[in-house]
Specification:
The chain has 222 residues and is an alpha+beta fold. It is built from seven helices and eight strands, in the order H-H-H-H-E-E-H-H-E-E-E-E-H-E-E. The model has no long low-confidence stretch (mean pLDDT 82).
Length: 222
């Protein structure tokens, strides 16, 4: 039992390092080769945990090999872009200039109900509002609404808009985020602001401040 626990802990952290080296991707954004490697990693990692006769090397060596293949393949695809078409394919234009490409739909084995569902997930309620819809290599649908249905941008309205920057969370769940205490913020100033609002640190679930100095406070549920 102890050996199984130790194997589990080792493989867990080894997989974390491996996945970090492979890059940050959500499951829905994985390409075909990345998805295959992910499935293989799960099978390889489970083998030494469930099989008492298997050592950690039975998992570490294949995982390291798959990592090497993935890294090498990613660089290879950068050096030889045509090779990417053979491995990951290319985007498919499902809707072009407002017209549905029925031939491409059949080629991708995508029915109209699936297309309509994917459009709804993109916030499109009427397919007539779509100018372009592209099925990407990872299976996600990129949608571009018609100009008449697109929200007006500040540049189109000739309005000057300043970049507000990013708000910083200074307190999360009653704990001060030390790394965000910058730009004039310190523990002393934060405590002073809480006292001014008659709050204690333990009362606050979230305390964030925007670059213009605006506070946003969420109290803990009692």
């Amino acid at each position: 039992m102890i050996e199984m626990c130790l194997k589990t802990v080792f493989i867990y952290f080894f997989l974390i390092v491996t996945m970090r080296l492979m890059g940050k991707r959500q499951v829905g954004e994985l390409e075909v080769s990345e998805l295959i490697i992910t499935f293989m990693l799960s099978e390889i990692a489970a083998n030494p945990i469930m099989n008492k006769n298997a050592t950690l090397l039975h998992a570490a060596v294949p995982i390291a090999l798959l990592l090497g293949i993935e890294v090498f393949l990613s660089y290879l695809l950068m050096w030889f872009p045509p090779l990417k078409l053979l491995i990951t394919g290319k985007p498919s234009m499902i809707i072009s200039n407002g017209e549905i490409n029925q031939k491409e739909l059949k080629k991708q084995r995508m029915c109209m109900s699936e297309l309509i569902s994917a459009l709804r997930q993109q916030g499109i309620s009427d397919i007539a509002d779509v100018q372009y819809a592209i099925l990407e290599e990872n299976g996600k649908l990129s949608v571009f609404p018609k100009a008449s249905r697109s929200p007006a941008t500040p540049s189109q309205l000739k309005i000057q808009v300043d970049d507000g920057g990013l708000a910083k969370a200074l307190i999360i769940d009653g704990n001060i985020v030390e790394s965000n205490l910058k730009n004039g913020w310190s523990r002393e100033r934060l405590t002073k602001e809480l006292n001014r609002k008659k709050l204690t640190l333990s009362d606050v679930f979230l305390f964030s401040v925007s670059p213009d100095g605006t506070f946003y406070i969420v109290m803990k549920d009692k």
